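Problem: given the chain below (588 residues), write out its structure.
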Amino acid sequence: MSDDSAHGATLDNAELFLNAAPDPIVIADEHGRIVFVNQQVTGVLGYAPAEIVGQTVEKLIPKPLRAGHDQHRLLYVDQPHWRSMAATASRVVALHADGHELPVEVSLSPITVDGELRVMAAIRDVSARLAAEERLRESEMSFRAAFDDAPVAMAMLDLDSGQHCIVQANESLGRLVGARPQDLVQRPLEELVQNIDLTSLVELIEGNESTTTEVRIRHKRGDAVVWVWAHSANISMTGRRCALMHMIDVTRRVEAESDRDHREAFLTALGDIRSEIVTERTSARVLDLIARHCTELWPGSSAVVAYADSGGAIVARAVAGETTDYVEDEIFDTSSTAVGAALRTRTTVGVDDANDGRGTTIVAPFAGIGHLEGALIVMFPGRASPATRTMVEALATEASLSIELERAIRERRRQLVTIDRERIARDLHDLVIQRLFAAGMRLQSAVGSARELETRAQEVIHELDETITEIRNTIFKLTEPDTSLREQLGAMLAMFVAPFDTTLSTSISGDVGRVPDDVASHLLATVNEAISNALRHAEASTISVSVAVTDDDLTLRVVDDGVGIGRLSSSGRGLTNMAERAAAAGGS
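Solution.
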């Protein structure tokens, strides 16, 4: 038996165990000749045992790498030891039988067989693992690029720390809060959120499933409020529980929604004030309503409506809010105050009192006919927007309209009294006195004949009855309303034109003077409600109002080009009130 055969026979006892190994195993002598291979060599490297047994191990190495390998082998034989050659950056590769290179890990172990040194090499195919690692590296690089360069603010939070500390932050998050991303690392995310939203944020982060919410972020510039839509998803990274946060700046949307809601509230307040002007005609009550609505539209604010008395002094007539320094009937010193400046320039004045802790004051002047002038003063706890200034000016116009309307009504009533006195004197002279004089002449001419006296007496009695009727008609005319329905409609419609960019057309046909007072009252209130709805809810730009009076009917039509009544709140009373007023007047 040759030496090789003896070696082979020695290995027969271990062959069963070596063939059961999961990886290819190659055993070579100290000269590098292969003396044994297990079955996995064929499956992994493609060689039949007969092809490589007796060959040197260099047959399994690609040709470019064979040079110098025998020197490494001699060094190993000189100092045999267990050694692992992993597939690192320098790559350990084996040559497959078909000629392609295979990345492997090789573990060398020295063994002694019959007193001779043998080297056992366990070869593991790591191509699948290296491919997975490459995919993982590419995935990590893609994630890092997507994370760092994302236009959306992103942060990775450590949930195991108990403080929701930021472990990674991208550039977009830094821009959102006005800080460098590296300065945000290791800071708890709660430090970036306003206190009012802390509960919502913690519930979002601690949620077991992906959730969303809207919170306010603290900007490095303290007075800036940044609304963000936040999304959180729990993930695991290197054994740690983490949360990946996405934050999108929705400040403009939130502010737009707030402006829309505030505008609707303003239009509702304006409708209430105008309804009061039409129905009550008392400026004191209207001014109190304006001041109260200011404090409701701008929480924390105070409002004062002031106008000139008969002596020209500007006096506070309506006061609302707890922070104002003014009381009713107090006279303003207009020589140096913002009120005086606004009245002198006839323009709205905004005064920033932030240094005094009072916020901003807006003074909106208004002027009437003759010497009448005044101002609406609203004091805000913070800064006031340009839209707020416009709203204050519109409310000041309503205050002026209320005062002027009450003055005009008093003047008209005075004029009506004078006119009625002249008409009564004329009617008494032309009708009553003349008829009484004629009746006396007839009685005087009837003296002398009893029959003729009886006939003339009947005629005089008839004339006296007619005179009584004339007097009654005169008295009835004195009790008619001071203002005709046509004039009241005109005055009310005029109030809706000035503050709105709306085209309002009117058409009145028939004898509206025939409309009873109770029906006229229902008509005016219904017109006011319909136009208010068109402006406040339908957002109309064109409105037409027509009133037609025939022998038997009164017809009111209000038509607009808005979005319809579908957006009206189901809890409102406006449409119900209109239906009830129509029913009370015997109509629909």
